[in-house]
Amino acid sequence: MHSARDRIEYEPWLEELEQIADRLELSTEARSCAVDLFLTDVPEDDRSKRAVLAASVYAGSLVAGEGRTQGDVADAADVSRLSIQSRWKDLLETAGLEPPRW
């Protein structure tokens, strides 16, 4: 659970997350999970926020059982696939979830 202050502070990023989720046609559950993952560990550096946002969307889609590919999420978020690949497992672990062991 995140404070209203967090949601207000990062509102522009959360709006971007919604736009990405719209492009990927994600469910409310996947979006909610992505928001929670993003707000759990927002980086200080603005340059890193977009990559963490994309990784959060990717991980949220997995948790919700809607598994979009890293490439599809990267295209929708305008980041490299490697940006997602290098971050999504850590996001899940930070949130207390166990990433799949593929």
From TrEMBL:
<dbReference type="InterPro" id="IPR013150">
    <property type="entry name" value="TFIIB_cyclin"/>
</dbReference>
<dbReference type="GO" id="GO:0017025">
    <property type="term" value="F:TBP-class protein binding"/>
</dbReference>
<protein>
    <submittedName>
        <fullName>Transcription initiation factor IIB family protein</fullName>
    </submittedName>
</protein>
<feature type="domain" description="Transcription factor TFIIB cyclin-like">
    <location>
        <begin position="16"/>
        <end position="93"/>
    </location>
</feature>
<dbReference type="InterPro" id="IPR036915">
    <property type="entry name" value="Cyclin-like_sf"/>
</dbReference>
<dbReference type="Pfam" id="PF00382">
    <property type="entry name" value="TFIIB"/>
</dbReference>
